Amino acid sequence: xxxxxxxxxxxxxxxxxxxxxxxxxxxxxxxxxxxxxxxxxxxxxxxxxxxxxxxxxxxxxxxxxxxxxxxxxxxxxxxxxxxxxxxxxxxxxxxxxxxxxxxxxxxxxxxxxxxxxxxxxxxxxxxxxxxxxxxxxxxxxxxxxxxxxxxxxxxxxxxxxxxxxxxxxxxxxxxxxxxxxxxxxxxxxxxxxxxxxxxxxxxxxxxxxxxxxxxxxxxxxxxxxxxxxxxxxxxxxxxxxxxxxxxxxxxxxxxxxxxxxxxxxxxx
DNA sequence: TTCCATGTTCCGCA
DNA sequence: TTGCGGAACATGGA
Length: 268
Fold this sequence. Notes:
Elements: H1 4-17, E1 23-28, H2 39-46, E2 51-57, E3 60-65, E4 70-74, E5 80-84, E6 94-100, E7 105-109, E8 116-120, H3 123-130, H4 143-151, H5 157-162, H6 172-182, H7 195-214, H8 221-225, E9 249-253, E10 256-260
Antiparallel strand pairs: 1-6, 2-3, 3-4, 4-8, 5-7, 6-7, 9-10
The chain binds a DNA duplex through helix 6.
């Protein structure tokens, strides 16, 4: 689930439930999601500190701990946050839990453990080290930059949109949605896209991601609240295309299952 | 029981 | 060098 819109809403959730509150105690359950740091170091960095700032880049979320290091979080395929009160039970598959003095708790949960937690000095350095491209919703990703990025790229457009080194934040679901809304076939070669199509893709990318944030990406609410005209409400075998009522098809692209409408999305 | 899944990374091949 | 398919990772749900 966690692509850019989901992570943006996780950020807002964290800001609301955990930011600016002193962490009385921190528990690290599974070391498997830790990278380049120990459970002890994470506990020490969190305990008696508070999350002072937060920032998102693509699918990564960063939480600054007081004036110290940042906790860099990635949610893999199944990660999310959960906040619960004094009498609440910790969710299954909780990997990290923060306890606050009012008895409330905040947890990073990830059943499949593909998520990652690490301590870093500066998000900008981390982003550079990981080779991440500009955030898909950032100001820097102007049409001009978008065109330049795609300009020296070959291969299928769906792969390009999902390549975090090119643009950070888009995964399988939203690449499908963007291509559907833009009327572009997922197998279209990037080098075959004309200027007009690239402009449409850029505009559509921003619109789709913003809509998803607004409609509650990251929670089950999105499925009901997203417009019916969106493909993400019709991601199932044999579904009807919301635009032409033809059949939605699937195929393998970039190693994943792509949903698309062969009638509305023409290859060029 | 078997297959599939919203992500990333690594390996081998072209 | 770049692109691409497949496998691996861990777990739950259909």
